[in-house]
């Protein structure tokens, strides 16, 4: 019979007492307080995760790989169920698109390979210095209602690959699907490694509990995916924060663009999951010369154009609140539902609502998170870039451009200073869907890490050996 070393280690971990000073009675009381990673209190959950991380830290890289593989292998056949639960609970977005988002999180989130490329060795007359990416400990991860299960999967793979345990604080509106997924993840991880509670949450997530977690002494890093309120709150906690905040991505189309392709890409990107992704096209800014042609092509690709002022008023009253925020009731709803509820007559099966507007329209300024997007005409490329810069609000999140002019593409990419800049493709190409590169649902904009992955969930440590291991 062939011996599996990892299985043997897993058995030893399961039966062994810890030798790090943590009392085993304390350990078992935390373990007993939770059920498959779901606890009553923040403190119990964090403490159980701390114990689990300590065990995990003392296993091997091979074990981490085994866990990541098990997560991918076991979640993939259930991707439709995972997406359906998030979709039905939040009642936002589009089921088919949510399936693709979850599939991408499972298959295209980098694992341990992400750490290897970021490690470094320096050798010379004085010996050898080694930089390695090591775990933080327990990460407090706050996740949004807009990408509920996909963010949990994406963060879990990256954070476990980096050797951490994770306390998840999901949006209360995605509580049931998150509990179901965390329990499933725990079963997968514990079957693969013998370690329980590497991924935890509490049974009643709330804003108050999220804030309690933010200041818990055993949380070593905060990774916050959400709007400006929660990112600001985390930054006031005094802990290190990776803040993945709001965006308002403009798409710029100039007169050199392949207009037919641009139109297709814009509808596909802006209508994807009913415009819930923070990276989705939220403003179309087009140079006059090709504006009519672009509009005609957008209509062919299932966009419905609203130019009648009375209809624009109806849509505004329905979807924008007096406080100039999106009406939550319509966040992530389909174009047809929004048109029906606004009482705007339409034909066909529109996926996207376009509103002829200027940059002062509330639809332009506000991150609407629904398939209602302004169509803004400007005189030339310079004006288009200025408008895009204004509408992005300096968030440094995402911008998209369609053009065949390389120097303009280069200029816009440089000036926009966004974490993601997509050229001649739909916005989602920027997260590895039809574009090269890995997938992330945590784009750390205010704190500057950009498209995060395992390497961002690890501390850089320097290890120095004097007078040795230089063989030149
Ligand atoms: P949200 O800000 O309402 O909630 C996000 C998370 O933060 C939830 O878990 C919520 O419970 C928690 N939260 C909210 N306010 C809090 C506070 N004051 N203290 C502690 N916790 C708090 O956002 P949402 O509606 O769930 O998601 C949409 C927002 O998230 C959009 O603004 C979108 O752009 C942003 N987002 C950003 C990224 C990114 O990678 N940059 C990814 C997805 C979503």
What would you say this structure looks like, in words?
- This protein has helices spanning 5-15, 24-33, 42-57, 61-75, 79-90, 95-108, 113-116, 148-161, 175-193, 207-214, 228-235, 259-271, 288-300, 309-319, 335-342, 362-365, 381-392, 406-416, and strands at 38-39, 120-124, 127-135, 138-142, 165-169, 199-202, 221-225, 241-244, 250-253, 283-287, 303-306, 352-356, 372-378, 398-402, 420-423, 443-444, 450-451, 458-466.
- The chain has 472 residues and is α/β, with parallel strands linked by helices.
- The protein has two domains: 9-245 and 452-464, Aldehyde Dehydrogenase, Chain A, domain 1 (3-Layer(aba) Sandwich); 250-437, Aldehyde Dehydrogenase, Chain A, domain 2 (3-Layer(aba) Sandwich), CATH 3.40.309.
- It has a seven-stranded parallel sheet with strand order 11-12-13-10-9-14-15, with helices on both faces. The chain has a six-stranded parallel sheet with strand order 1-6-5-4-7-8, with helices on both faces.
- Helix 6 packs parallel to helix 8 (148-161).
- The protein binds nicotinamide-adenine-dinucleotide.
- Nicotinamide-adenine-dinucleotide binds next to helix 10 and helix 11.
- InterPro entries: Acetald_propionald_DH-rel, Ald_DH/histidinol_DH, Ald_DH_C, Ald_DH_N, Aldehyde_DH_dom.
- This is Aldehyde dehydrogenase EutE.
